[in-house]
């Protein structure tokens, strides 16, 4: 067997745990009984969770439409810059729509707060938020995601779409870099 290319990453949540949790999250989101839900997936980090969640939702009988929103807050640093900009806007009209807002990770809460304001300003009827990882110890904005996959301690996490300076997005599990000073 090939050596793991990620021996420096400590596993927090395994691929199996994530798969089981995503199925649960899909059931919980399906129970929200959203009307013709439009998924707004926040890039880049949300792409893996989005791919799994829309298929899990489909298995529960919930069909989705999907659009992507690219926001930047961190750049290549591991510290929040505090300023959020739209790098790539959604290509859908959200006026009157029910939205599932998918984020990779909720940290300070600024990114989700920004996306929620944007969607509500544009007339979204309902926005249900979900993040695969929540780090509640680091909030600067009062935001609670409606559906959270895993609560993580205040360490820098990677994998399952989540990066550190563009690395580790392809990891099938969620972990943290062992020698990273958190
Ligand atoms: P927030 O705006 O502070 O809630 O941060 C949200 C974004 O910051 C996430 O979507 C990530 O892209 C990035 N981020 C925050 N914490 C981490 C982390 O521990 N690992 C990787 N990215 C993170
Ligand atoms: Mg990032």
Short description:
With 182 residues, the protein is of the alpha/beta class. The protein has helices at 15-30, 47-59, 110-121, and strands at 9-13, 38-43, 65-72, 85-88, 98-106, 126-134, 147-151, 157-158, 174-177.
Q: Can you describe what's shown?
A:
- The chain is an alpha/beta fold and 182 residues long.
- The chain has a single domain, classed as Rossmann fold.
- It is built from 3 helices and 9 strands; from the N terminus they run βαβαβββαββββ.
- It has helices spanning 15-30, 47-59, 110-121, and strands at residues 9-13, 38-43, 65-72, 85-88, 98-106, 126-134, 147-151, 157-158, 174-177.
- Strands 4-3-2-5-6-7 form a 6-stranded mixed beta sheet, sandwiched between helices.
- Strand 5 (98-106), helix 3 (110-121) and strand 6 form a beta-alpha-beta unit.
- The radius of gyration is 16 Å and the shape is globular.
- The two termini are 32 Å apart.
- The structure holds inosinic acid and magnesium ion.
- Residues 45, 73-74, 80, 103-111, 156-158, 162 line the site of inosinic acid.
